[in-house]
Amino acid sequence: MTRPRLRDLGIAVGRLPPGPLNAITDVAGVRVGHATVIADTPHTVRSGVTAIWPRGPEIWDNFVFAGGHSFNGNGEMTGVVWIAEQGLLASPIAITNTHAVGVVRDAICAYAIRGGARQAFHLPVVAETSDAWLSDPAAFAVTQDHAWAALDAATAGPVAEGNVGGGTGMITHEFKAGIGTASRRVATAGRNVCVGALVQANYGLRELLRVDGVPVGREIGRDLVPSARPQRVESGSIIVILATDAPLLPIQCQRLARRATTGLAWIGGVGFNGSGDIFLAFATGNHVRPSETISALRMLSPDAINPLFQAAAEATEEAILNALTAAETMTGYAGHTAHALPLDRLVEVMQRYRP
Fold this sequence. Notes:
Layout: E1 31-39, E2 45-53, E3 63-73, H1 80-86, E4 88-89, E5 93-97, H2 101-114, E6 125-129, H3 144-153, E7 171-172, E8 175-176, E9 179-188, E10 191-202, H4 216-219, E11 235-244, H5 250-258, H6 260-267, E12 274-288, H7 306-326, E13 330-331, E14 337-338, H8 343-353
Parallel strand pairs: 5-6, 11-12
Antiparallel strand pairs: 1-2, 2-5, 3-4, 3-12, 7-8, 9-10, 10-11, 13-14
């Protein structure tokens, strides 16, 4: 059964309008696909891969500018050293579980070579959060075939959320969560611009959860809905991928990526020591082709980027909340259960605070 998104419940956060899909795929050319891995024998597995194509298969020959930010670095995102060096993203992005980063990274390299990509080498971006509470970490169940399936399944339409792909086994603010997405539209410098966010959310304490400033986590306490874990755990991670069709340079992408921190903080993310809160932003408004020795580039002025900063924060905030509303209760490894956020109680709490 598909659970509703935040706006389907009559709850809207932020001030800027969303795109038609309210998803990262509102940025033209962006595609998202999932491969979900669920098994009970021989190991209990609740895992998978989520793939993002920045502008479809042409990314191998038509690069985008990108920049990253580590809010708290107890996690992994491959390929970011090279992005920091040259500012270019030249491959799809994937998000998976902690122990599968290497397999998925190698799978993207093999996928590129199989498809005849002409790059001399490949340093793809693969990020992770840990699903070890619901999925046996010793299973190593994610394979090259799963990564290829996620890449092949990517489409430009609506994005599945919650217990799918890399987010299958993830937990946020002690409720079941996973993949979430959202977008915002802004007008700046005489043009209409879209900013989209996709998150794999797996962090946070119950009492810190807020929705549009409402202390939902305190109102839906552990006495009403049991925590996914019996003990207080100040760890976990979130990966945020931001996309925009604006013409940004790499340093501007870095600055945009930092604004995911604001959206995370609005909901209650702190960046605890045990958390891997790593963000990447890419911009499709320029085209960099290795066949050209000189690229014609454009950029927004420093002041004109301000609306994008707000859009990035708002899209991140709503993407996390969509991950929470879409996810369903899941039982997994060692009988552990992560309960879904009860949507009837969420609506009741919001109406009480925002009549």
